[in-house]
Write a structure and sequence with these properties.
21% of the residues lie in helices and 35% in strands. The protein contains eleven helices and 26 strands. Strands 19, 20, 21, 22, 23, 24, 25 and 26 form an eight-stranded antiparallel sheet that branches. The protein has a six-stranded antiparallel beta barrel with strand order 1-2-3-6-5-4. A six-stranded antiparallel β-barrel has the order 7-8-9-12-11-10.
Length: 477
């Protein structure tokens, strides 16, 4: 009995001593993993790919780095960069089907190799993507959430539309049947090859690619279970030449920067341009868009080819859509832009944090609507309350007209998910209903009258502004 009591006391003492030991926090684990992430630079690349950049991580030993194969394929000069400098590298092994490459470094890095997680994440798990998105100068971490729920949803094929699947199949990389991680969050250009880690810094996936679906991006990562096969993969000297596709999330040469601007609490970057026909794929209110398009003043074919610039908030994937070549400038309320010689069209953007759509709307409410006009809701283009999508995203759209009628118009979209919101408002108080009435009475002859021609060009530009505000959205999850 005495021996049992003594053993119990000893056991309690050991447990107490262990409890008093300093334990690493999740932040410490992620920070330690971040120190093992490198920028991979590929130069002297074949075809028109030019120099490329992506992310990578130290694995197995200090002279081995893993990255995405599409970052380094068809390139003669490879190197990795850390805060300590640049180290030459050679392509050692590849797994083409999994879009993975193993690099051998000319000298060891002062970083601890990362380890693969013993099990795959499940739906709802929080993970972190590490890397160099958008050519940032230091490694970046972003929280994501796993959303796949069934075995079939874990295959790349299940994520892709038919045209994207066909292009990837023709390119030969990656296999459409690889196991992937589907995530709620935004993998960005430059994340290719970067590790996706769990809360203790173990690798659960490797950033691979994404596709543009309308205004929003959808990304994927390759499961870390493929890492075990990489050392016995195809020798680097025998790696096939792979045609570039539009789905790899590599970035341009690291000396190039993505234009970014702070619009409130958060920043957005200028992502890409697209036509209206391409952007409708991500529109969450097709009936409303069609209704707006009827009043745009464009022929149907011309309308489909209208071009827009898309600004993206990296954390949420929020996509703000504006007419092509629109430049946003920061101001005390977010970002703004003005158009036409007399500044009669204004655009305002705010991207920030809010607990719900109502708070977001209240933060954004002070607009550019001129005080000398009274504004009333225009019911055909307005929601009576925010609409909630199946993924929990709340969208509120509101149109206003001035009193007296015809002197001003306004349109805004406020979109919110979890704690992030984006809001865009376009206002026009350079309308001239008298001139418009006179011009329309001229019939086809109005196109010979300079004042009429310039006024209707102005009206068409205004229509493009409204369509862009309506197309502003967040990627579905």
């Amino acid at each position: 009995m005495f021996a049992l009591k003594t053993s119990a006391r000893v056991l309690r003492a050991i447990i107490l001593a262990l409890a008093l030991l300093p334990m690493p926090t999740r932040g410490q684990d992620i920070q330690q993993a971040l120190s093992s992430v490198v920028l991979v630079v590929a130069r002297e690349c074949a075809s028109a790919q030019g120099a490329k950049a992506g992310s990578g991580f130290v694995w197995r030993d200090q002279t081995t780095v893993v990255t995405a194969f599409h970052v380094v394929t068809n390139c003669q000069s490879l190197s990795v960069r850390t805060s300590a400098g640049s180290v030459p590298a050679q392509l050692d092994r590849v797994l083409v089907d999994a879009d993975l490459a193993m690099l051998r470094l000319a000298s060891p890095l002062p970083a601890a190799p990362l380890n693969a997680a013993p099990s795959s994440p499940i739906a709802g798990d929080e993970v972190v993507v590490l890397g160099f998105p958008l050519n940032v100068p230091t490694p970046d971490s972003r929280f994501l959430r796993i959303v796949h729920a069934t075995p079939n949803a874990r295959r790349l094929r299940s994520l892709l539309p038919a045209d994207a699947a066909g292009e990837i199949e023709r390119a030969g990389i990656p296999s459409l049947d690889i196991e992937i991680l589907r995530i709620d969050g935004n993998i960005l250009p430059g994340h290719s090859g970067g590790p996706i880690v769990n809360r203790v810094g173990q690798v659960v996936g490797i950033g691979s690619g994404g596709l543009q679906s309308g205004a929003v991006g959808v990304g994927w990562a390759v499961s870390s279970r493929y890492l075990n096969g990489l050392p016995s993969g195809l020798a680097g000297r025998d790696a096939p030449a792979i045609a570039a596709t539009r789905f790899g999330f590599r970035a341009p040469a690291p000396d190039q920067r993505f234009p970014q601007v702070t619009c409130g609490d958060l920043s957005v970057y200028r992502s890409h341009t697209a036509t209206l026909a391409q952007l409708v794929a991500s529109n969450d209110d097709p009936a409303g868009l069609n209704y707006l398009a009827q009043f745009a003043g464009y022929a149907p074919d011309e309308l489909q080819q209208l071009r827009f610039t898309v600004y993206v908030e990296p954390g949420s994937g929020l996509s703000l859509v504006v007419p092509e070549n629109t430049i946003l400038f920061p101001d005390p309320q977010g970002c703004s832009a003005s158009f036409v010689p007399n500044g009669g069209i204004f655009l305002r953007v705010m991207v920030g944090r809010a607990p719900n759509n109502q708070t977001a709307y209240q933060r954004f409410s002070p607009g550019f609507q001129p005080r000398h006009l009274q504004w009333v809701p225009y019911t055909p283009f307005s929601y009576t309350a925010p609409r909630t999508r199946p993924d929990g995203t709340e969208v509120y759209r509101h149109a206003g007209v001035s009193a007296p009628m015809g002197l001003g118009e306004s349109f805004r979209t406020v979109i919110h998910r979890r704690e992030t919101f984006g809001a865009i408002e376009v206002n026009n108080y350079a309308l001239n209903p008298t001139l418009e009435f006179q011009c329309r009475n001229l019939g086809p002859a109005m196109m010979q009258v300079p004042n009429c021609t310039s006024y209707f060009q102005f009206k068409r530009f205004w229509a493009a502004m409204v369509l862009g505000a309506h197309l502003t959205t967040m990627p579905p999850i």
